[in-house]
């Protein structure tokens, strides 16, 4: 989303009372030379270029001005001089000097202007001195007799928000607005800042409430108000409400900008609704808003997420034909799409093409390709690309190091990964949770659980950041190694530290309990899992663990009940599920069955629930096992597969495979 300045215009920060080209010539006390007192720009520059060992009299503006002024004839220090001093000290971050000037002005009963305070608020913001800015705001009236207005209020509010202190910002806003003695009425900018803060905190409903309050306060929402709210709604996956706001703003006479449309297009692309995103682009063009680089990049990213790489490349060509220059983000998105489709080699070719065109390829593109090559089993190519990256002067960061370590562990080379880890630390790159979890997983998979546990201890003792993924890897490895008691200890520690187990951690514990013969305990943990948030909900792997344990105990009826529950939870059976039940039906029943009717019924039920992909996957299993579906089931399959769009998609896929 477009960022806009929430400060008043630049003219508010610069003193209109001072001529930038004028200078005041003052004799120095310690020498008979002259030096010039200029405005903030010339003075700050002078201060930077002068050696630090100069005495006070050689500074561009110093206390000498006060001591010398009575001897300067007709010249007297006026308000303009003090305003210039405030601007100079604020721009240079000299807050002691600033307080000295304020104290002198107060002593001489000078006139304080609000714009001088706004300059100081901005300086405090740059120096990350939030409380000092708030304190100065509270001193304006009583100490300096300067009337506060909404301008200074907005400046301080912005300083707080820029530091990410969102709750403090809301507290400050409520305090000032509700204080009758301050008599400050918020304007549109104030509301925009509060709405932005609430959206940052995920309080979108509260932000909408503030938005509805604006007309009551006689403030008209502008395009930034609507953009901020739309962005907040899209991040909460409330796309429909965001689209309704687009209609509302046009009815209210507030015309959308390309930024407005880009926010909605981005939300729709992330949701996967590319058809509506395309329609919104058409609407955008009809409203006279031209698609820009952000629009194209967003659409290309959405197409890559959906795997429509051909359309993404076509859109890239259209982008170039419309005289928009693709950047690293555009090509990085295309490369990421290629990697996700298992075409990392094509991504490397595109990388070479970019480098030949003098594009600046960053470390994130390299990390994507290195990761993709390792995942495709092309470890040698991955290492080669890594070396080329280093040779070309692209310094690897934590992300790239972590990707290489993960890749080496995936191909069964954790010892080499540990060497890279040592080099990473020597280069000053701090390992993260992904780095440690990759190393632990690598050693666990090689059967070296002692080494994996040692790495865990190094992470804990080194005060590195640990998350639920690290715990999941450790629990999974311990359970797989048969160390259920140790896994339970880690599980308890994870819960005590406030980390919520994910589906991997739950499934690993359930697997460990089942292997230990504690199926009832495993089912209790499974039922607890059903009450958790989405990332901890059971998947097909979890169900398969329980199916296998129940079927081994000849509890086939309980396994079938659990299968029905699984399908009600919109989780489709896979090849492993089919094999578990086929084995049980052949070996655990008094009258063995081949499982044909069982699988056929599963196909029919999935078709009735419009879960076509799951049904077709089971049909493929049946054909591999030489268990042909019934004629009526075949009819359903053929009817579904022979839809015109699906046929065309299958033909397109064949053509792509021929040319790739």
TrEMBL record:
Transmembrane segments: none annotated. Pfam families: PPR, PPR_2. It comes from the Eukaryota. Residues 45-57 have a biased composition (Basic and acidic residues). Keywords: Repeat. InterPro entries: PPR_rpt, TPR-like_helical_dom_sf. Residues 45-70 are annotated as: Disordered. PPR repeats lie at residues 187-221, 222-256, 257-291, 292-326, 327-361, 362-396, 397-431, 432-466, 467-501, 502-536, 539-573. NCBIfam families: PPR. Belongs to the PPR family. P subfamily. This is Pentatricopeptide repeat-containing protein. It comes from Dipteronia sinensis. The lineage of its organism: Eukaryota, Viridiplantae, Streptophyta, Embryophyta, Tracheophyta.
């Amino acid at each position: 989303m477009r960022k806009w300045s929430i400060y008043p215009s630049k003219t508010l920060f610069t003193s209109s009372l001072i001529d930038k080209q004028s200078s005041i010539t003052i004799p120095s006390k310690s020498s008979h030379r002259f030096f010039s007192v200029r405005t903030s720009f010339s003075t700050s520059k002078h201060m930077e270029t002068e050696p630090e060992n100069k005495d006070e009299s050689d500074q561009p503006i110093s206390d000498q001005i006060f001591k010398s002024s009575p001897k300067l004839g007709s010249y007297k220090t006026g308000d303009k001089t003090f305003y210039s001093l405030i601007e100079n000290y604020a721009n240079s971050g000299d807050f002691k000097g600033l307080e000295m000037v304020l104290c002198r002005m107060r002593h001489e009963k000078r006139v304080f202007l609000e714009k001088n305070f706004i300059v100081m608020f901005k300086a405090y913001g740059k120096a990350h001195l939030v409380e000092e800015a708030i304190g100065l705001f509270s001193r304006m009236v009583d100490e300096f007799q300067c009337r506060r207005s909404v301008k200074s209020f907005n400046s301080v509010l912005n300083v707080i928000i820029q530091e990410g202190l969102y709750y403090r910002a809301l507290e400050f806003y409520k305090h000032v607005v509700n204080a009758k003695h301050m008599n400050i009425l918020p304007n549109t900018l104030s509301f925009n800042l509060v709405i932005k803060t609430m959206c940052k905190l995920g309080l979108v409903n509260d932000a909408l409430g503030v938005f509805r309050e604006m007309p009551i306060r006689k403030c008209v929402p502008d395009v930034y108000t609507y953009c901020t709210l739309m962005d907040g709604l899209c991040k909460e996956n409330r796309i429909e409400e965001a689209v309704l706001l687009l209609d509302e703003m046009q009815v209210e006479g507030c015309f959308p900008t390309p930024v407005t449309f880009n926010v909605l297009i981005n939300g729709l692309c992330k949701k996967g609704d590319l058809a509506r995103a395309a329609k919104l682009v058409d609407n955008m063009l009809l409203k006279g808003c031209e698609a820009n680089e952000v629009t194209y990049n967003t659409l290309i990213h959405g197409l890559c997420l959906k795997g429509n790489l051909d359309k993404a490349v076509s859109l890239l060509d259209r982008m170039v034909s419309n005289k928009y220059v693709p950047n690293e983000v555009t090509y990085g998105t295309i490369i990421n799409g290629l990697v996700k489709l298992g075409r990392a080699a094509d991504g490397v070719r595109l990388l070479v093409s970019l480098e030949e065109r003098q594009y600046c390829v960053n470390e994130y593109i390299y990390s994507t390709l290195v990761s993709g090559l390792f995942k495709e089993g092309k470890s040698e190519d991955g290492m080669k690309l890594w070396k080329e990256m280093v040779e070309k002067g692209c310094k690897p960061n934590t992300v790239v190091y972590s990707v290489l370590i993960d890749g080496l562990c995936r191909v069964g080379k954790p010892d080499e990964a540990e060497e890279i880890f040592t080099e990473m630390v020597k280069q000053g790159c701090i390992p993260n949770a992904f780095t440690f979890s990759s190393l632990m997983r690598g050693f666990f998979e090689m059967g070296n659980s002692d080494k994996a546990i040692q790495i865990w201890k190094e992470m804990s003792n080194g005060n590195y950041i640990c998350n639920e993924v690290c715990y999941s890897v450790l629990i999974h490895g311990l359970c797989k190694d048969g160390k259920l008691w140790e896994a339970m200890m880690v599980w308890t520690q994870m819960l005590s530290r406030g980390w919520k187990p994910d589906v991997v951690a739950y499934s690993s514990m359930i697997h460990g309990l089942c292997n230990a013969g504690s199926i009832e305990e495993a089912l209790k943990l499974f039922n607890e899992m059903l009450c958790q948030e989405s990332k901890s909900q059971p998947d097909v792997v979890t169900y398969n663990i329980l199916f296998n344990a129940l079927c081994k105990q000849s509890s086939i009826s309980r396994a079938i009940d659990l299968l029905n529950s699984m399908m009600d939870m919109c989780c489709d059976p896979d090849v492993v599920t089919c094999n578990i039940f086929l084995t049980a039906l052949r070996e655990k029943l008094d009258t063995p069955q081949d499982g044909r009717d069982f699988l056929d019924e599963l196909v029919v039920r999935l078709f009735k629930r419009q879960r076509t992909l799951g049904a077709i996957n089971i049909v493929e299993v049946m054909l591999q096992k030489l268990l042909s579906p019934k004629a009526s089931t075949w009819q359903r399959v053929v009817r579904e597969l022979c839809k015109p769009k699906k046929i065309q998609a299958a033909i397109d896929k064949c053509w792509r495979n021929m040319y790739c």
